[in-house]
Amino acid sequence: MSDIDLDQRPANNRSAVLKSRLTSWDSIILVLTVLVLIIASFTVDNFGTSRNFTFMVLDLLPIILIALPMTMIIVTGEIDLSVASTLGLTSSMMGWLWNQGLSIESIIPLCIVIGAICGVVNGFLITGLGLPSLAVTIGTLALYRGLAFVVLGDGAVADFPWNYTGWVTGTIGDGAVPNVLILIVVLALIFGIVQHATPFGRSLYAIGANAQAAHFSGIRVARTKFWLYVASGAVAGLVGVLWTLRYSSARADNGAGLELAVVAAVLLGGVSIFGGKGSLPGVLGGVVLLTALQNALRLEDVSGQALNIVTGSLLVLSVLLPNVTSAVRGNWHRRKLRQASATSAQ
Amino acid sequence: MLRSPRTLLSVTSAALLVAGLTACGGTTKDSASNTSGGGQSAAAADPNAAVKEGLKIAFLPKQLNNPYSDVETGGGKVAVEELKGEYKLVGPNDASASSQVSYINTLIQQQQDVIVVAANDPNAVCPSLNQARAAKIKVITFDSDASKDCRDAFINQATTEGIGQSLAKMALEQAGGEGEIAVLSATPNATNQNSWIEVMKEELKKPEYSKLKLVKVAYGNDDDQKSFQEAQGLLQSYPNLKAIVAPTTVGIAAAARYISSSSYKGKVAVTGLGLPNQMREYVKDDTVKKFALWNPADIGYLAAFAGANMASGKITGAQGEKFTAGKLGEYTIGADGEIVLGPPTEFTKENIDQFNF
């Protein structure tokens, strides 16, 4: 149905320029990520070890998983800021259900469903009632976190079974590959294929570029967005489970502030906050780049405050640079056009 | 593609079905065996081993830039210098449950010999601490303990008995051996204060306290204004009062402020638990002769020595083992690997200027 190929649009020239700029930003991030990894392995003591690799994968696990649906949502020009609170609510619910005597095998799917329901509420308010996603998800950010505290209060539930908590922090056959990496790879592949190789995925870009045009060309804009929020909630629920098991501690304040880390990584990966642009490989690169940089700096005993300054500057640069280069390029292009018209007039 | 609310309904019910099916049989709270892995096999202690030099001892407080924990880790730094070790201080900017874990992981990677940590969450740090112990790093907790099975020893700043006895002793001294005394506490249900007051009352039954009479326990709710008024009220009701004992830093400061500006100055003593910086002016103007609190610098100092002794194989954290902690003297490890700092430090006009917290 809605197989829109952006390159076939009338504004052929401009979109080609746009596309080349985008792919170049993606590749800049990916190259930068590889560079940071290589340089850190050689210059930072204890960086390139298998144990540090495990630690890094565990640190980026929540960010990378939530970033998968978040990328799609931001590509459509919307945002979901309630993800970390959904995580906190599922973590609380997990502790509460565990205290009620339910088995962990039934709690885990239930928690994912709870996350999905949080997403349904967001999706309904945004697509059903047509409210702005920024306002709605700031509201549910507070709401879900509040509910999390209602469920569990200030307490914590910690006695989850060792075979589950151990699995999350463990590695395959006690080797170098963390168990959770399988989860990351499988989910990244699914989301990557959906986003980049299906009509559904292509329609996201059309929605982000111009929702009305997308609507008139037959894309079910509201329904598409609705399901993105459900997916976002479900993934946040899954991450709530993983977070709880990793720290073997179900708490209402789990993951507080994580939504900003996710949005930051997605933007660093070259996704435009205005929608319509961005790719998943770029985002994956962005997450790895941020995590690796923080890990390396921490190993070098850089203080927490300095760490914030570095990552903050990197983010500002990541938003600034593509805009500056496009402005410079546009200027140069216009000047060339002017020169061309001047010479032809003579 | 996805159609209609019915799809949603079916997805949800499918998920619920999965949940329902798995609900029968599975790991529940009651059936879960919670033998957490990690940790180390307990090696035998060698009391004759020398304390090694060059040990890497890292401090990880609840968060950085907190004045109280700065004093604690400052004491640790002094101890590490005495031990000729390498001191390191790291920590998150926020005191959230999980933010310490990345720092513990970094310390494992850096192969520290000892990690001295104040746990933000007794359980969230556990898997990481056990990884550290598996990597032959000794883990000492201070301030707030982690679960017993993921640390080697805990530095306990004070026992309930120690505080209660110290309060009774100071009251006896300050009242001049006899007369009426009153307690100005925090809230009526403050757990710590109540247990200290209980111990104090037990002490007062002993013969040497027979001439001391506790006439009233007042509550200032740890509010400066209320504590000030309660102190006023105590002296109106009991004009013969010899001493006010306030086992709370807010209460003792408010009582001292009232007495120092009233005609009771020099007649009624104020003592209890207080912070030197808050009490300095009242000690200097002789309103307060003596008060007490554990010395936070000693907590860090003792933690560093305990860690160094453990990393050198002198102790393992088992009950009854003894070690020497520099200027603080000899310590014996108690049940569950607890090391009690000892009786609180007493502050007087002579020594108060040595303390800044």
UniProtKB/TrEMBL annotation, chain A:
Subcellular location: Cell membrane
Regions that span the bilayer: 27-44, 56-75, 110-131, 176-194, 226-245, 257-275, 306-328
Alphabetical list of InterPro entries matching this protein: ABC_transp_permease
Recorded coiled-coil stretches: none
Membrane topology: Multi-pass membrane protein
CDD domains in alphabetical order: TM_PBP1_transp_AraH_like
Main location: membrane
Keywords, in A-Z order: Cell inner membrane, Cell membrane, Membrane, Transmembrane, Transmembrane helix, Transport
Protein's name in the database: Autoinducer 2 import system permease protein LsrD
Organism of derivation: Paractinoplanes pyxinae
Organism classification: Bacteria, Bacillati, Actinomycetota, Actinomycetes, Micromonosporales
TrEMBL record, chain B:
UniProt keyword annotation of Signal present: yes
Domain of life: Bacteria
Cross-referenced InterPro entries: Bact_Solute-Bind_Prot2, Peripla_BP_I, RhaS, SBP_2_dom
Signal peptide: 1-25
Primary localization: other
Keyword vocabulary terms for this entry: Signal
Localization per Swiss-Prot or TrEMBL: Cell envelope
PROSITE patterns cross-referenced by the UniProt entry: PROKAR_LIPOPROTEIN
Domain Periplasmic binding protein: 57-314
Gene3D superfamilies according to UniProt: 3.40.50.2300
PANTHER family with a match to the protein in the record: ABC-TYPE SUGAR TRANSPORT SYSTEM PERIPLASMIC COMPONENT-LIKE PROTEIN, D-XYLOSE-BINDING PERIPLASMIC PROTEIN
Protein name stated in the entry: Rhamnose ABC transporter substrate-binding protein
